[in-house]
UniProtKB/TrEMBL annotation:
<protein>
    <submittedName>
        <fullName>Glutamate ABC transporter substrate-binding protein</fullName>
    </submittedName>
</protein>
<keyword id="KW-0813">Transport</keyword>
<feature type="signal peptide">
    <location>
        <begin position="1"/>
        <end position="22"/>
    </location>
</feature>
<dbReference type="InterPro" id="IPR018313">
    <property type="entry name" value="SBP_3_CS"/>
</dbReference>
<dbReference type="Pfam" id="PF00497">
    <property type="entry name" value="SBP_bac_3"/>
</dbReference>
<feature type="domain" description="Solute-binding protein family 3/N-terminal">
    <location>
        <begin position="42"/>
        <end position="267"/>
    </location>
</feature>
<keyword id="KW-0732">Signal</keyword>
<dbReference type="InterPro" id="IPR001638">
    <property type="entry name" value="Solute-binding_3/MltF_N"/>
</dbReference>
<comment type="similarity">
    <text>Belongs to the bacterial solute-binding protein 3 family.</text>
</comment>
<dbReference type="InterPro" id="IPR051455">
    <property type="entry name" value="Bact_solute-bind_prot3"/>
</dbReference>
Length: 282
């Protein structure tokens, strides 16, 4: 009987151990980015859903754009295959909160590195240098930033672009902020708005879309330097370092140039050379 009792106890312990192991396997690799060793682990990455050429959710549910390509490359270097990526929409106004809450492992969403944002999140990169510009109708007489005084100007909630214009260039501009750039573009097309301002890379992506070809033009102003970085939760230095290594490799092996050509080439976007890691252009 003594032998039978020990066996029963051992069996119970074994069942408990297996149960605990199974539970650990389900959580296994931190849904926002664990070890990246496979076995069903996922990584959640924040992107935009409405920016052609950068971060766009296609009608078939797939994703395209330069930010998507950069994030996919980085995820691969972190140990995740494309089918292990869960893309999460992160609008401009919610990027810092998404990282603080742990909704995503990192964000690649036209995220300009600024001193204010660095108080809340850490950045890897930069991986692209863009410039703030204006998108107007093809027959518009807007040629300079000061021409926006008295005009209806649109950008998105949480973006730095509109305030740059309002505070420094055209204080009498009638500023409207909407939830997404696609809404601004629709207003521009209908005539309800006179101009949309944000980074030239974003504007070029919209202008190159089939339904808008020939309707809009970039004014060609370099109103600011926008150093796109990959946002990471504050204090996660290890992830920042790994992403920086991945970005350097992406440039050195030619993948960065390939992604630029594929995503911006159709709009004749004149991109800057790949920036050096940690080199912020003021």
């Amino acid at each position: 009987m003594k032998f039978r009792k020990v066996t029963a106890a051992s069996a119970t312990a074994l069942v408990l151990a297996l149960t605990a192991t199974a539970c650990g396997g389900d959580n296994g690799g931190d849904s926002n980015g664990g070890s990246g060793s496979g076995g069903g682990d996922k990584i959640k990455i924040g992107i935009k859903y409405d920016q052609p050429g950068l971060g766009l959710k296609e009608p078939d549910g797939s994703f395209s754009g330069f930010d998507v390509d950069v994030a996919t490359y980085v995820a691969k270097e972190l140990g995740y295959e494309p089918n292990q990526i869960e893309w999460v929409e992160t609008k401009s106004a919610d990027r810092e909160n998404a990282l603080a809450r742990g909704d995503v492992k990192f964000i690649a969403a036209t995220y300009s590195i600024t001193d204010e944002r660095k108080q809340k999140v850490d950045f890897a990169g930069p991986y692209l240098l863009a410039h703030q510009d204006l998108l107007v109708k093809a027959d518009s007489d807007i040629k300079e930033g000061t021409d926006l005084n008295g005009k209806k100007l649109c950008s998105v909630t949480g973006s730095t672009s509109a305030q740059n214009v309002k505070n420094e260039i055209a204080p009498k501009a009638q500023l409207q902020t909407l939830g997404g750039y696609s809404e601004c573009i629709a207003g521009l097309q209908s005539g309800a708005l006179d101009a949309v301002t944000t980074d030239d890379a974003i504007l070029a992506g919209f202008a190159a879309q089939d339904q808008y070809k020939g309707q809009f033009k970039l004014v060609g102003l370099k109103l600011s330097n926008e150093n796109y970085g990959i946002g990471v939760k504050k204090g996660d230095t290890a992830t920042v370092n790994k992403i920086n290594d991945a970005l350097e490799k992406m440039v050195s092996d030619g993948s960065w140039n390939k992604a630029v050509t594929e995503n911006f080439g159709p709009a004749n976007y004149k991109n800057e050379e790949a920036p050096k890691i940690g080199q912020i252009v003021q």
